[in-house]
Amino acid sequence: MTVDGDLASQLSELARSLQDEEDFEATLATMVAAALDLIPGAAEASISVVEARRTISSHAPSSALPAAVDRMQQKAGQGPCMDAAWEKKVERVPDFSVEDRWPSPTPSRSAA
């Protein structure tokens, strides 16, 4: 995807707004809200933070769903967010109900 004028303008506005946030959690919450607005098809989001190069913590979930997914991944030690953080790559999961890259339960499979 190329950054067109409108997206560039929105990202610039986001960068300026982050300077006004009072603390770390507020900054992350603003980033999650912006991601949901700017990423086509994004319905839920949270931010994974690598701490001390050995643990990952979840912050600013947009609802209970990403918080639950993050907890499941942290407990299992695997999943798309864990891979994205450790391997520094984008992971896309259009449908957890048919996802087979991670053998641990996903939200759709654990509800069955």
From TrEMBL:
<dbReference type="InterPro" id="IPR029016">
    <property type="entry name" value="GAF-like_dom_sf"/>
</dbReference>
<feature type="region of interest" description="Disordered">
    <location>
        <begin position="93"/>
        <end position="112"/>
    </location>
</feature>
<feature type="compositionally biased region" description="Basic and acidic residues">
    <location>
        <begin position="93"/>
        <end position="102"/>
    </location>
</feature>
<protein>
    <submittedName>
        <fullName>Uncharacterized protein</fullName>
    </submittedName>
</protein>
